[in-house]
Amino acid sequence: MNQSLKQKLKGVFRFLPALRLVWQASPVWTTTHVVLIIIQGIIPIILLYLTKLIIDTVTVSVTTTNKESLFQKLVFFIILTGVATLINVFCSAIGELVKTAQSRKVTDYMSSILHAKSIEVDLEYYENPQYFDTLQRAQQEAIYRPNIILGNLVWVAQNFISLVTMVGLLLSLHWGIGGILFVAAIPSVLVRIKFTEILFHWQRKQTAMERQGQYLSWLLTGDNFAKEIRLFNLGNIFSQQYDTLRKKLYQENLNISTKRSFANVAAQSLAALLMLAAYSYIIYQAFLGIIRIGDLVIYREALQRGQSALTGLLGSLSSLYEDNLFLSNLYEFLDLKPNIVQPANPKPVPKPIQKGIVFERVSFQYANSQRQAIKDINLTLGAGEVIALVGENGSGKTTLIKLLCRLYEPTSGNITVDGINLNQLDTTAWRREVSVIFQDYVKYHFTAAENIRLGNVEIPANDQSVVSAAMLSGAHDVITRLPQSYHTVLGKLFNQGEELSIGQWQKVALARAFLRKSQIIVLDEPTSAMDPKAEYEVFENFRQLIKGQAAILISHRLSTVKMADRIYVMDQGSIVESGTHEELIQLQGSYAYLFETQAQNYR
Ligand SMILES: Nc1ncnc2c1ncn2[C@@H]1O[C@H](COP(=O)(O)OP(=O)(O)OP(=O)(O)O)[C@@H](O)[C@H]1O
């Protein structure tokens, strides 16, 4: 057997993981769903059999004198027919409810699996377009495919039983008729499998384009972009780009669908001709008097039912193949492994940190980049020390912080805390000790109190420490002026939300950092959007604010970092100067030059 056929067959039977997901999502609804489908599959056969019994009884009654017992029998069969019909009606009515409930459960379960995986993977994945393609494909399939697999398996069973019965009947007439049934069904199945594969590969190729379309649509409809799109009059341009993209996708899809339709016409015409030949043979047998008119009717019925059972069976088998092919998109996503590995036996995080954090010849290059973002960095942050990183845009300051938080692994060199390499610590436990507010901090569209509490979710809601943190960052005054004070929803996304200015948002984010009970605090341009008074208040009493935490400050305003114990000046990924403010001024290097330039602007 050639390799690809083997793989295809393997694909057909790789439905167990999907069934497991369906089962895990909702064992009770799934069982009920299957039981109902089975009952609904059996009842038509029972009804058919009861009809036969009724006809037989009526036929006998015509020639019998003792009609009373036959009448009782007849009444009994009619009652049974009524009961079976009622059960059928009940099952289909309840079936709708069960189907809806079960598929909603599966949908929600699959969403939570996708969410869990999205959190588990490293930040690095989020800088990789292929990751988003994989995620998009997984999202498309995960929601409904597992349920369809379940349905298709039940269909396979139902059609198989039906087929065996009908083929048995037809074989009694001529073996060739059974054969024709099979031959007639094959072309349609081949067409389906072929076009499923074509569509699958086309969709995989088009994911990036689909996402580009979604991005344009997001630009056109998202609140973040509404201002600029209007002012730069970009609406029509983006909208045209979107239309061009969608037209291309539509055209390619239509081409495949058209080809598939023609192939289907050819396959189904061939099947119809073969069935006509079989039917003609049955008619001819009746014409010759070999079979009776009654037989003709039965065989025709068996032929039709047999054909629909076989088409159904092969159809559900090829659907299973299709489902599995497309579900590989989901498995591909679920199989992603984080690059940052957790140590098997993590060492405890030092509490309190005694000696401090040391960067030893640390270099790092982003996976999607040709250049080193930081090179050969040596840096020390002693316990309770405040250090500052300054340098031009792109000099590597934020990257250094990301390495400290173990969002990435250094390409070379070591980062240690009290002599223990960060890769020997449990990542979550380590991150608990670092409180970071990045430049692109998150504006949560939750209440003001929740926005701050997210810095330390271990404290209860409405804890007084939220207010204390807000006071330290200057957010308290902003929040108390809001209509519902700390209970006001921030942002404009939800009803009664109150939008803040960028500087006000920054104060809220800073409060989040202050709330966290960590040993290290990292503020990446924390006051860049604050007014001078607010900024002054933060840095004036900075050491009291951080209460003995070690701190790393990143700022372009050198006046704010003057008080640091040590200032590191970065340039193109390297540290080019370091020392206290006074030492660096005396050095008369790039720091002194920058400081002097900024100071002149304020004179
Ligand atoms: N996710 C990324 N993937 C690839 N390259 C990146 C990524 N993030 C940053 N870089 C590159 O790494 C270098 C350092 O960036 P980094 O953000 O650390 O600079 P920075 O000093 O914090 O700059 P700024 O002052 O503008 O905040 C830059 O050349 C940047 O282009």
UniProtKB/TrEMBL annotation:
It is found in: Cell membrane. It comes from the Bacteria. Its EC number is 3.6.3.44. It is a multi-pass membrane protein. This is Xenobiotic-transporting ATPase. Keywords: ATP-binding, Cell membrane, Hydrolase, Membrane, Nucleotide-binding, Transmembrane, Transmembrane helix, Transport. InterPro entries: AAA+_ATPase (IPR003593), ABC1_TM_dom (IPR011527), ABC1_TM_sf (IPR036640), ABC_transporter-like_ATP-bd (IPR003439), P-loop_NTPase (IPR027417), Type_1_exporter (IPR039421). GO terms for molecular function: ABC-type oligopeptide transporter activity; ATP binding; ATP hydrolysis activity. GO terms for cellular component: plasma membrane. The chain crosses the membrane at residues 21-50, 70-95, 149-171, 177-195, 262-284. Residues 357-597 form the ABC transporter domain. Residues 34-322 form the ABC transmembrane type-1 domain. It is an enzyme of class 3 (hydrolase).
